[in-house]
Specification:
CATH architecture of the largest domain in chain A: 4-Layer Sandwich
Radius of gyration of chain A: 23 Å
Order of helices and strands of chain B: HEHEEEEEEEE
Number of domains of chain B: 1
Number of domains of chain A: 2
Number of helices of chain B: 2
Distance between the termini of chain B: 36 Å
Largest sheet of chain A: 6 strands, mixed
Pfam family, one (chain B): SoxY
CATH topology of chain B: Immunoglobulin-like
CATH topology of the largest domain in chain A: Purple Acid Phosphatase, chain A, domain 2
Largest interface: A-B, 40 and 19 residues
Shape of chain A: globular
Helix content of chain A: 25-40%
InterPro entries (chain B): SoxY, SoxY_sf, Sulphur_oxidation_SoxY, TAT_signal
Helix content of chain B: 10-25%
Distance between the termini of chain A: 48 Å
Structural class of chain B: mainly beta
Strand content of chain A: 15-25%
Number of strands of chain B: 9
CATH class of the largest domain in chain A: Alpha Beta
Shape of chain B: globular
Keywords (chain B): Signal
Protein name (chain B): Ig-like SoxY domain-containing protein
Strand content of chain B: 35-45%
Strand order of the largest sheet of chain B: 1-6-5-8-9-2
Number of helices of chain A: 19
Oligomer: heterodimer
CATH class of chain B: Mainly Beta
Strand order of the largest sheet of chain A: 5-6-8-9-11-10
CATH superfamily of the largest domain in chain A: Metallo-dependent phosphatases
Organism (chain B): Methylobacterium symbioticum
């Protein structure tokens, strides 16, 4: 009997040769923990970046997007390169472990071969190894979206994640979904966090005074390292403002520059921006703010195997859901970066051994809920995934559930980029449903909406995604729809991208003046009423027993 | 309906009052229907500049790229200049070209005051906000910022 670990080693050994560096080592040799961690050390500072794990303590399946369009100057640039083009760009052989980790190509077959990725206990092992090798040169930074979006993080109000992250001893963090725990809970956690929660761009809404520390200075390998935190700039717009009424956000580019200048004045040899801006926003920011050496970028869930250079600034994108850690070694001398080497370390859960202490902690957290979470609701015939600009089959399932359980004409589901993947034939458990829906404002509303308003909603969200100026983007995907089809021209200006809205039930065009019954969830408005979305979805799956979601019908132009 | 919203005096405004004199007045001119806003904006600017074409620079408008709440958008305007009796900014006018009434507020300055003011403005929809500054020698400068007003996000 061949174990999965043996199979992985064989698969890796038979993968095609590629010309460069660590990818070749990866493909030629047996896939081992040793190889995954192999790194020729450099310089006197090591940054380790983890971001957007969305409270996933255990290894997950997460399919990367096949559609991730860039607009304006970002058109055709990474991270807006997917699938085959991505493999070609980075010289990654098809069918290889990295092809599985980084693209949706042949996803189902490769997922069955290479298994789940991530797991905080595996991440702990990798961190232990890097710290053992690099000692006091290491800075471990958490880019946020850490405390929310799983069942245990929801019922413990983030405490499970706070306790587990405490074992990893991050040096600093910033946030986004953290804020959906509300002002009081965030303050309570931050007060006892054990590491600074940085956010130069979060202010008291009335007095414009800093709500969090902006910058923390560290000594690593004889260099002074300034870490500036940048929380998600549009938290009170993309998420409920009423939960954090006294905090105001924004990009605040000039304040970023002021923080950088201040850090340099205080003798920083290396300036790091720990950012939850999203990749395109950070690329623009890096081109305009002078003096940032490294941007550790998060929010948009992009995983890139190499740093992107903007002027003298390195952009590091480390993926999501615990699938990756990035290690960046830097040679910092005389207040400047003389050289660097980086590696996106894929956390193959069947290859990297779990760290015992973290594994025990995770087990203890889950024990009271394990029976409920593993309970099966039904099965899926289709591959269920969420990531992609316009649709995900998991969202199709949620829209089907909203349409049938809430008896609506039209369903709307938010374009969240988090949520785990299920393979065809797999059982759907309570936990799978929570992994796609666990938020603090889950009410599944049902309301009348005119056709004009529906178009306005779609136009509004489309501009959050496709405004040619990244500073006006919010970093989610397009709102998902059920019961209607539409066409979108991503290259057109705000307010004129959406057309051909058609009600699927009748095949007739959506009339601006007519009223339709719309069901949705995750409204940012206070006082939204309805059952929690996870109950709606669970009830639908139980009723159907086997699900095969209705595919979304979106025609995309101008890409 | 008034398009100006003037809150209690902010600390910065208090400072401005302390060192010199600055008076803020809400606009009262009416633009009629929303469609008339753009011509009304141009007209208001022309009247303010006494027919001169404003030059970009010296006046700086600070606004968020996307408003967290269109009903109360924080705004700071400042003018680069010595603020001496010989050279100072007389008046800064703020117009929001997409509002039903584009006139928002006007700040009057005197020499030795701080040429900076902040307030909160109301924006009905995504639009350009324009600041026009008139110096004591009659020269005029402007700055423009687009502010997006959304109807509810789905980000994440």
């Amino acid at each position: 009997m061949t174990s999965r670990r043996d199979f992985l080693q064989i698969a890796a050994a038979t993968a095609a040769l590629v010309p460069t560096g660590w990818i070749r080592a990866f493909a030629q040799q047996r896939l081992t923990q040793y190889d995954l961690l192999a790194f020729e050390p450099m310089g006197n500072v090591t940054l380790v970046h983890l971001t957007d794990i969305h409270a996933q303590l255990r290894p997950v399946l997460f399919r990367e997007p096949s559609t991730n369009l860039g607009v304006g100057e970002a058109r055709g640039q990474v991270p807006h390169v997917t699938g085959r083009a991505y493999l070609d760009l980075y010289g990654i052989p098809g069918g290889s472990p990295l092809a599985y980790a980084l693209t949706p190509e042949d996803y189902v077959a490769l997922a069955r071969s290479y298994g789940r990725m991530g797991g905080l206990d595996r991440i702990a092992t990798v961190l232990d190894a890097i710290r053992a090798e690099r000692g006091d040169k290491v800075l471990f930074l958490d880019g946020g979206d850490t405390w929310q979006n799983s069942y245990t993080s929801m019922v413990s109000k983030g405490q499970d994640m706070v306790d587990c992250m405490a074992l990893l001893k991050p040096d600093a963090m910033t946030g986004h979904w953290e804020f959906t725990l509300g002002t009081e809970r965030v303050k309570e956690i931050v007060d006892g966090l054990g590491c600074p929660f940085l956010g130069q761009n979060v202010r008291d809404a009335e007095w414009n005074e800093p709500a969090f520390e902006s910058t923390k200075m560290f000594e690593r390998g004889g260099a002074k390292v300034a870490v500036i935190g940048q929380a998600f700039p549009y938290t009170p717009i993309a998420n409920p403002r009423w939960m954090i009424p006294n905090w105001s956000f924004g990009i605040r580019e000039e304040d970023v520059q002021a923080s950088v200048d201040n850090a340099r004045k205080e003798g920083a040899d290396l300036v790091v921006l720990l950012s939850h801006n999203g990749f395109d926003v950070d690329r623009k920011l890096a081109s305009r703010v002078k003096g940032i050496d490294v941007v550790l970028t998060g929010h948009t869930h992009d995983a890139l195997p190499q740093a992107v250079k903007v002027g003298n600034t390195l952009l590091i994108a480390s993926g999501s859901h615990g699938k990756f850690l990035t290690r960046v070694d830097l040679d910092v001398r005389d207040g400047a970066v003389k050289g660097y080497r980086s590696k996106l370390i894929p956390i193959f859960s069947d290859v990297i051994a779990p760290q015992k202490a973290m594994a025990a902690k995770i087990q203890a957290i889950r024990a009271p809920h394990e029976a409920m979470l593993s309970q099966e609701l039904g099965r899926t015939e289709a591959l269920l995934y969420r990531r992609g600009n316009f649709n995900g089959t998991l969202d199709d399932l949620i829209c089907d559930a909203l349409l049938s359980e809430r008896e609506a004409d039209i369903a709307l589901s938010p374009g969240f980029r988090w949520g785990t993947t299920l393979l065809p034939g797999q059982a759907i458990t309570h936990e799978d449903v929570y992994n796609a829906t666990a938020i603090t404002y889950p009410a599944a509303y049902r309301m009348p909406m005119t056709g004009a308003r529906l178009k306005e909603v779609l136009e509004d969200v489309a501009d959050n995604l496709f405004n040619a100026d990244p500073y006006y983007q919010q970093g989610g995907d397009m709102v998902r729809v059920g019961g209607v089809s539409y066409a979108i021209d991503v290259a057109r200006p705000a307010g004129s991208r959406i057309s051909d809205l058609t009600l699927l039930r009748t095949g007739k065009p959506i009339e601006a003046g007519s009223s339709y019954t719309v069901a949705g969830w995750a409204s940012v408005n206070e006082g939204t009423e309805g059952p929690p979305i996870w109950d709606v979805v669970a009830s639908h799956i139980k009723a159907k027993k086997t699900v095969n979601p209705t595919p979304a019908q979106v025609t995309v132009r101008g890409a | 309906m008034t398009s100006a919203k003037i809150p209690a005096m902010s600390r910065r405004q208090a400072l401005a009052f302390g060192t010199g004199a600055m008076v803020a007045t809400a606009f009262a001119f009416r633009a009629g229907p929303a469609l008339a806003a753009k011509p009304a904006t141009d007209e208001a600017i022309k009247a303010f500049t006494r027919g001169k074409e404003p030059v970009k620079g010296r006046v700086k408008l600070e606004l968020p790229e996307i408003a967290e709440n269109g009903n109360t958008v924080p705004m700071t305007v400042s003018v680069d200049g010595p603020m001496t009796a010989e050279s100072y900014v007389e008046e800064v006018m703020i117009v929001a070209e997409g509002n039903p009434n584009p006139g928002v507020i006007s700040f009057h300055f005197t020499p030795s005051s701080v040429a900076e003011a902040n307030t909160r403005i109301r924006l009905a929809e995504t639009q350009n906000v324009i600041a026009v500054a008139r110096m004591n020698d009659g020269s005029v400068f402007s700055d423009v910022r687009q502010v997006k007003v959304t109807i509810g996000g789905c980000g994440g």
